[in-house]
């Protein structure tokens, strides 16, 4: 419980660079990409953090109802727990990889490593995105980079901002207490994580953002 309390600890929103705001908790990132045509929110923290994320967006001077797309890095309660409420409140389209979409629809159950131990409110994905596929809004482009390993659907997001700056919002590459060799629930785990290190290492961007602090 203390871990979840630490994950949910609120902080004030702050601007990272022009058009990019941190609106998450002290430990779990939620990033708001702002444009005149509407906004994109990456990750949703815990279910209990959804009201704080909404409040942070408003404190930064924006409206949750102007969010057009919700993006997810991985489908566990720390990054997708608040997605159901934020989607309902915003009316935004949820965009995710197929494995993340499947796991969010199950509310985190049948996790290859955690089983049914850490469920969260299920949520339906509106658009399945493929590796290297992009979405554009108001002069910014966000490209999905599949970086599987932490979860099979893990996705990092590369963003080209309106001013030409680039950033990467990176999913975790951690394998905490995972069985790496001959994992019957995830046979490709080792090759996936090796490939994901290469994918992220090949990105040359102006700003790196991790999806969580630890």
From TrEMBL:
Domain of life of the native organism: Bacteria
Q: Where does the Metallo-beta-lactamase domain start and stop, copy by copy?
A: 27-212
Gene3D superfamilies, A to Z: Ribonuclease Z/Hydroxyacylglutathione hydrolase-like (3.60.15.10)
**Which InterPro entries does the entry link to?**
Metallo-B-lactamas, RibonucZ/Hydroxyglut_hydro
**What stretches pass through the bilayer?**
none
Protein name from the UniProt record: HARLDQ motif MBL-fold protein
Q: Which organism is it from?
A: Salmonella enterica (Salmonella choleraesuis)
